[in-house]
Amino acid sequence: MWHSATIRTSLGFVVLAIACLFFADLSISTVNPWQELGRLLLGLVTPNFAAVDFVGLAILHTLAFAFLGVGLGVAVGFLLALAFRSVWIRTACAFVRAIHELFWALIFLQFFGLHPLTGVLAIAIPYAGVFAKVYAEILDEADPRPAQVLPYGSGWVSGLAFTRLNQAWPHLVSYTAYRLECGLRSSAVLGFVGLPTLGYYLESSFAQGQYSSVGALLLLFYLIIATLKWWVRPRLLPLYLVAAPFFLGSGLPIVWHNVSRFFTEDIVPAPLRSGDGWSGLAPWLADLLVDQALPGIWNTLLLTQIALVLTGVLSLALFPLVSRHFTGRVGGTFGHILLVVMRSTPEYLLAFILLQLWGPSMLPAVVALALHNGGIIGHLIGRRSNEVTLRPDAPRGFGRYAYELTPRLYGPFLAFLFYRWEIIMRETAILGILGIATLGFYVDSAIQEIRFDRAMVLILITALLNIGVDILARRLRTGLRLRHTANCEP
Predict the structure, then answer these.
(1) Contact predicate 486/77, CB 8 Å
(2) Is the domain 1-31+267-490 a CATH 2.40.30.20 member?
(3) Where would you find the membrane-spanning parts of this chain (predicted)?
């Protein structure tokens, strides 16, 4: 039901987003954006699968990076979850998951190059932090009473296996399956930094105006995501994990001297390398903050706030498409397909496409973030609405939406939205690689100029900003008494 605190908080976010609109660049600069959009849509409905003879290998690379990255993240994350009560473990996990996979890829590219290890670690490290947090929350929600009836002398491992782990197993499996879907999206996007996944071929096909090839690649990607539950079976996972290393592709051999130089020289601040000493560090940091960090933070916050509110609006508008209280069998199937496509398309890919259509501004990023996250939350709220039982004389149409369902679903909706807040912030920062002046833009520029010391400072600032938003979101959920479950993804 409606509560005054949730209404005040919601209005505050909306007012802040409206204020941000006055400072954001939301212009369309291309000469004929609708003509380009029409060509793209024509390519989507007339896919040319014959033109993408490389697609089989690209799909295998995408799957291999996803399975190995997520698999390694699961193994490390589960071990970390068992020790998650340690403040050091929690802090380390918060830090690594606050850095986007593409930022990790850009870091590893500097010393591993286009080696398969770059893609695997870029997925595994942040995912380990995510798995550690969520697995710990799921295990903590387990009923403690079964542990009280274990025989005297039962070991810690036996207690874990037969009490908390036994109860939490379905939720752990469900969440891991969802993160595998996320891993496939992350793996595809790694192609935009040169790794041989679907994103690499999508970018090249789009740059050449081959929209039918783009349509074929996108449809195949959606097909992979949509059929996950049929071909990713628990008994087949060991086979996939064993086979995955053979389909990563080959890269140049790792030059270990470059690795040591990166950590001992490249990321050392320039004043310390040049002999200016600690006295030169403060001016160097001040220039970096004023010229790059503060503009990047400002634009990142602007874009995040607008995208967050637009995500909420889209979620509330779209959830009836998958709710049995509003749609029949055919309409529900169409709505489900639409929201699955929205949530399955990576924000980075959406923003890349929209940038080509509309030109460089914040508008493509806002729309991409809102479509992807709105699809996720809309699907979640729609499923939640199916659990609500209405009285026989409940109103229909808009009355049912406004007075019966939305008030009951608003608390879970805000919980999901605040949960996605930090994720939207992470994506906002990384979209700067596409040319939008968020923190990622300055990180990418520093790397292109071979100023890795500046890039690492900016990445650290990005991580701290994401951690701050995550803390604020948790406090808001607690203050508003929003029910938040660990397994709050599709």
Answers:
(1) no
(2) no
(3) 12-34, 54-82, 214-232, 239-256, 297-322, 423-443, 455-473
